[in-house]
Amino acid sequence: MHIKQVHLLGGLFLTVPTLAALKIAAALNVIEYAPLLVTNQDYFNNTATIINGGVASIVSDTSVDLAANAETQALRQYRNNPSLRVIWNVAQVPYRIVANKKSKISTLSDLKGKKIGTIQGTSAGYFIEHYLLTAANLKPSDYKIISGSDCRASPCGSNTFPSMLSKGTIDAIGFWEPTIEVAIQTLGEQNVVVFQNRTAYREIYNLHSTAEKLRDPKKRKEIVQFLRQLIKAQKIFDEDPTKVYSRVSKAVNVGVPLLQKVWPVHDWKGGIPGDLLDVLEEEDKYVAKVDNRAAASRDKLKNLIDPTVLEEALKEGF
Ligand SMILES: *[C@@H]1O[C@H](CO)[C@@H](O)[C@H](O)[C@H]1NC(C)=O
Ligand SMILES: *[C@@H]1O[C@H](CO)[C@@H](O)[C@H](O)[C@H]1NC(C)=O
Predict the structure, then answer these.
(1) pLDDT > 90 fraction of the chain, expressed in percent and rounded
(2) Of ligand 2's atoms, which has the minimum distance to the CA of residue 197?
(3) Of 169, 196, 223, at which residue does a domain stop?
(4) pLDDT given at position 316
């Protein structure tokens, strides 16, 4: 039993039962994770512990109750950890490609034969492959992928994508924010062309738990409570973001003006996307190739999504 001592007037202590603290894993340097931080601070008395990690943490460490990550990493982990569950969407982000006009690029098809900065095996790696194939009919053999690092404020280090783009080491970048916006600002808006197509790809950054955690009635109750508060926090992110800019800025080390600029690329409406299973089925073919395995069936992937936690959270009303 977890207990908490409440300090009463006159120095008396009253011992009351409380819920066990939740442990949450997320990459602490991405904008997408920020609603979890704000939920913990504003609605959870900071009682949850948020550690740096993601779905890899929740499947390897049973003390972790919740984990946030893009759909790509969930697919990588689900293969060997079939108890992983998506319970809610934190953010959807239609990634962008920024290309240098000097490389004679004006349409997506012009990326044929070009060098594109991204990281294979990540959501950005899939974004490039899927977007170029479905919207421009370009196969991976039609362009060259070059690895690099992110940059969240100029001046960017020499091995970062924005520096590589301005030096001409690469012709375009396909990556998450704010690196794309930093590259646009580094080269100057008039010198770049930006491609974005939400139908072709948007990152689906979800909150996950495991079947074991969700079977434990006490733990499940805490998770439902957390989700109820997260829904409130995301409403602020969506409708009134000026309230959170400065905190998010400090948390992920992205200056407020840059954060404001990339905010519209992020969709905080939450829920569980209606086409999530379709996206997972299509994307698992890519993840399977990167991880050198067979793609999972739609039937198997169906179990990765558990809408019942959200149903319970909504039942209590707001
Ligand atoms: C936060 O603290 C207040 C006051 O101590 C308490 O009433 C509330 O139930 C707590 N909320 C959570 C989620 O622990
Ligand atoms: C966006 O991508 C889809 C494929 O996913 C494609 O059918 C559509 O034509 C693209 N739209 C534009 C404006 O390129």
Answers:
(1) 91
(2) 1
(3) 196
(4) 81
